[in-house]
Amino acid sequence: MSAVEATVTRVGAAELRAAVHAALTAAGAVPDEAAVQAEQLVEGDLRGHPSHGVRRLPVLVTRLRAGLIVSGAGVGCEWRTPGLAVVDGRRGFGPVVARHAAGLAVERAATQGVAVAAVRGSGHVGMLAPYLETMVDGDCVALVLTISEALVHPWGGARAMVGTNPVGIGVPTGGDPLILDMSTGAVSMGRILDHAAREEAIPLGWAIDAAGAPTTDATAAAGGAISPFGGPKGYALGVALETLVAALTGSALGAAVTGTLDTEHPSTKGDVFVAFSVDAMGLAPRLAGIAGYLDDVRASGDGAPVTVPGDRARATRERHLRDGVPVDAAVWRQVRELAEETE
Amino acid sequence: MSAVEATVTRVGAAELRAAVHAALTAAGAVPDEAAVQAEQLVEGDLRGHPSHGVRRLPVLVTRLRAGLIVSGAGVGCEWRTPGLAVVDGRRGFGPVVARHAAGLAVERAATQGVAVAAVRGSGHVGMLAPYLETMVDGDCVALVLTISEALVHPWGGARAMVGTNPVGIGVPTGGDPLILDMSTGAVSMGRILDHAAREEAIPLGWAIDAAGAPTTDATAAAGGAISPFGGPKGYALGVALETLVAALTGSALGAAVTGTLDTEHPSTKGDVFVAFSVDAMGLAPRLAGIAGYLDDVRASGDGAPVTVPGDRARATRERHLRDGVPVDAAVWRQVRELAEETE
Question: Which family does it belong to (chains A, B) (predicted)?
Fold first, then answer.
């Protein structure tokens, strides 16, 4: 066992949720909202994405105590047109607002065919996959977008100007849904910071340094910018999503996006939830064909493993539910300390 | 001037459109539909994407004469719900049906906030950019998706199972719109065939051969499959778009997608047009902020060129309108021959 692996401990998902819940309520969160936020953080670790997991708890607690996150204020909603809701998160927990928005879009799509919930004033939503799954369970094709602080450089650019802007697509099938939840950055800043902490080099192509030059030095990368995935095309997608979200939510853009990683600024990002009703299309009977196609895709490696978006996270989640959730020991210690505090 | 460059001739855009129009009407197309299809083919060459340009004319003419494309049959439209139209292309020209569908979505979005036109039974639509521009001119944020014959291999897969499935996003700004029109393949099959014709090697990463191995041999690649752009992430996006389009249009999937490159089968692909009204969101006053952000992005190279999606095609189009459209001499000869035929 390496020194790095030795710092990881296994925690049961229920125990982890309970500790996060206790920490959030100790910091002033309303219990049912704390439960939603705790579940969403634990989902990050369960699915193998600790960068969206309980390691974000300390920032949430600090933001909550500073009034940058407000619990119990409810969610504002105005249907501007039959298919388009403007959602005011009222500085609430990202997952609380996001679940509400996803539910609004799904419910309205049943009669409208398609509906959008455009969210402002909400905290970091975490992984998109759980919302996509909920929307797919509501018999919808789902598109979920959010933006982040500027961490990615434009292709040819020398500094971070674009968020890691993930694209979330959920498609119902006869079987397991297709769930795409993918950042447009080459890598997460969390992974770069992990390498920096271990003084390990990063592969060329992950990031540039503060002077705009490609680097393998993780510390220099942490002070520079993440590269987009897939070169110019990934950059083009990321910047297109940044402007699409801004045009539909009135969010900030680029370096003006704040409030998801920091502990000083209100959230200025936006989130977009689009639900397309499969029933309204009359296409539910055809969904089994999509499952069959995806099985053919999985078999297309002639023995080599081929996965469909959602497969890997689903398998990881099952394994972690069974064997315990791997959590960095220092993070787990911090979570328990926060859980033992009183308001 | 190299041997390759010497085979390219310059043709005025109007002359090119007129010749394509004549060829299409000679093959039985209704004049106004021939004009729409001719304009869309010429737009491909104008914007520097000859793979979507007039070189596709011979296939269109053959399909038209074979009854696989039907001109003058109109476009069927059924609003299943207030926001969702099912469009039957009736085997019509892709651009004729696509323009109609884009117009339906924009018009309906004005009252609904968001509207979808889901298209089946339509020919190849060509570049997505012109439709995106039209939708943006209608004060909408636009999302346009289409799928193609299976040409791209899944990540880890040994054969083509996924279309080159482009993603089209249009965002209005105070100035030039952002127009993303981007295939999820690493490269077009047209470019691979060009290399094969010139017996030139292709870069590693563009394609695999028929046995599933990465290759630099263009001829082997033409008999194999294109790689997705950006590795596993580009594949994930491409396959997600394939299933999203299928779920919303009832289109075929993977190897069952036919009728855009071949001259034997009806079109079984689908197209999706989604319009989000900026006016309905009340966000038109904020669009100037998007233009300002994009100017900052363009300046982020500290002297090195940085483009925003749409910039390059716009500049190329202006240059080709001024200097003439570069067309392969053999293609231009063929266009003129087809134009001189009578039905």
Answer: Belongs to the LDH2/MDH2 oxidoreductase family.
